[in-house]
């Protein structure tokens, strides 16, 4: 393949590193992702996506589409010497960090949350930032050494830069000396916590940040408004809608996934209809373009599907954490890591979420529907790529049936994850894979808890 038919793509990672690859002019997103996987040495990146910066906003690339769709005419006239920039970003935030099976992916997930913490503007959650800084210091520095000499203790307070662990507004409010003096106290309380446990603790705490584990999209209240004052936040459990007032984010609506009845767009017009019981009017906002609307809608659909497919595993992880906290449960099984990897490789989260364009049968129990209505501009844009027909399509997101499995190993891998163990395998997606605990196992655990017994 001749050089002039190649394009140089630079992929920026959450940890401030970058990867480079050369792809064909007619390449699709999958080719870049495959290069990223090979260079990182992982089999999959289930919660990450490739994003392009368009109109000062990150949009996740449809991996089945040609890259020329995202870079326009510049892509066709470019050369191997001029890089095109893509970003590897968290596309799906999770309720529990233990669900990320690859240690490398978990590290990247942590890195992105670290950067979001430094940019956070949640000034009413000041105490949380001290907890996050302590967890990050434990993960990156390790145990804080205890010194008997006062002079040594004074020096010990300067083993980190506040700018690396606190947002700028907090440094300005409290002062660098205050942070250097008090942060080591909280850091010291985490003595003995392993690096992997500290990372999981940081991920759990960062999820409490209002602008932490969310993806923001800017929208306008009126089509002709020059400034986008509405922020639509795609969160783990649903949608948050904020309005910026004098530089502050004021929450207008907080929708869980079950609160949303229907999402539709027509060109740049984006509508959110809540379930009737909430008695809310249909919310109408405007995106930058129909291109943005389509990608936002896809992200919402996939995020909802991930929430449905992981909720049972999250519930069981929480149960195991509660048992561990109350010292009523100890792991009794040895997890067969090789068998676990083979079982997890049988499932693919990415492919399951790409099936969002397929309508399920009417007999399935749906949570909310997503409809796409196209206007003339959108049709013209899509005709260039000769893709889907855009008359009117409807999407039903199904609720998976509850499935129980009789293999106690399904319990053990979840319990093992609580101790900071991670395996380089893909994240499980299907409901049958996430169903981890049988009724028999639950009864055994509950009975032992009642008896105050522990398993050695």
From TrEMBL:
GO terms for biological process: positive regulation of hippo signaling. This is FERM domain-containing protein. Residues 7-311 form the FERM domain. It comes from the Eukaryota. Pfam families: FERM_C, FERM_M, FERM_N. It comes from Amphiprion ocellaris. SMART domains: B41 (SM00295), FERM_C (SM01196). Gene3D superfamilies: 1.20.80.10, Phosphatidylinositol 3-kinase Catalytic Subunit, Chain A, domain 1 (3.10.20.90), Pleckstrin-homology domain (PH domain)/Phosphotyrosine-binding domain (PTB) (2.30.29.30). SUPFAM superfamilies: PH domain-like, Second domain of FERM, Ubiquitin-like. GO terms for cellular component: cytoplasmic side of apical plasma membrane.
């Amino acid at each position: 393949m001749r050089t002039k038919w190649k394009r140089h793509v630079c992929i920026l990672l959450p940890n401030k590193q970058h990867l480079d690859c050369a792809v064909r002019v007619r390449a699709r997103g999958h080719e870049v992702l495959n290069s990223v996987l090979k260079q990182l040495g992982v089999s999959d990146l289930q919660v990450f996506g490739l994003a392009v910066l368009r109109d000062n906003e990150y949009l996740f690339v449809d991996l089945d589409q040609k890259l020329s769709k995202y870079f326009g005419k510049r892509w066709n006239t470019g050369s191997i010497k001029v890089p095109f920039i893509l970003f590897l970003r968290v596309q799906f935030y999770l309720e529990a960090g233990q669900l990320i099976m690859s240690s490398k992916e978990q590290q990247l997930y942590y890195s992105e949350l670290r950067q979001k913490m430094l940019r956070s503007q949640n000034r009413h959650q000041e105490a949380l930032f001290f907890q996050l800084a302590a967890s990050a210091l434990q993960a990156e520095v390790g145990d804080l050494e205890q010194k008997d000499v006062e002079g040594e203790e004074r020096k010990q307070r300067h083993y980190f830069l506040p700018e690396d662990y606190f947002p700028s507004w907090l440094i300005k409010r409290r002062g660098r000396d205050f942070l250097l003096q008090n942060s080591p106290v909280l850091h010291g309380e985490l003595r003995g916590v392993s690096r992997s446990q500290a990372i999981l603790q940081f991920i759990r705490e960062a999820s409490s940040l209002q602008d932490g584990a969310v993806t923001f999209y800017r929208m306008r209240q009126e089509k002709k408004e020059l400034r986008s004052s509405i922020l639509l936040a795609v969160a783990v459990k649903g949608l948050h809608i904020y309005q910026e007032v004098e530089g502050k984010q004021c929450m207008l609506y907080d929708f869980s996934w079950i609160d949303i009845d229907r999402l539709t767009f027509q060109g740049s017009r984006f509508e959110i209809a809540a379930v009737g019981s909430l008695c809310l009017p249909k919310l109408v906002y405007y995106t930058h373009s129909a291109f943005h609307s389509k990608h936002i809608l896809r992200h919402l659909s996939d995020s909802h599907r991930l929430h449905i497919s992981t909720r049972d595993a999250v519930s069981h992880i929480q149960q195991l954490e509660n048992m561990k906290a109350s010292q009523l449960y100890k792991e009794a099984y040895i997890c067969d890591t090789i068998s676990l990897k083979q079982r997890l490789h049988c499932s693919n989260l990415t492919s399951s979420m790409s099936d969002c364009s397929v309508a399920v049968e009417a007999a399935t129990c749906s949570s909310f529907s997503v409809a796409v209505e196209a206007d003339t501009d959108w049709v013209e844009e899509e005709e260039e790529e000769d893709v889907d027909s855009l008359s009117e399509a409807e999407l039903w997101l199904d609720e998976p049936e509850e499935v129980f499995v009789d293999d106690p190993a399904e319990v053990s891998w979840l319990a093992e994850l609580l101790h900071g163990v991670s395996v380089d395998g893909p994240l499980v997606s299907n409901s049958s894979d996430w169903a981890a605990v049988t009724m028999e196992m639950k009864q055994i655990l509950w009975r032992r808890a009642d008896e105050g017994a522990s398993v050695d």
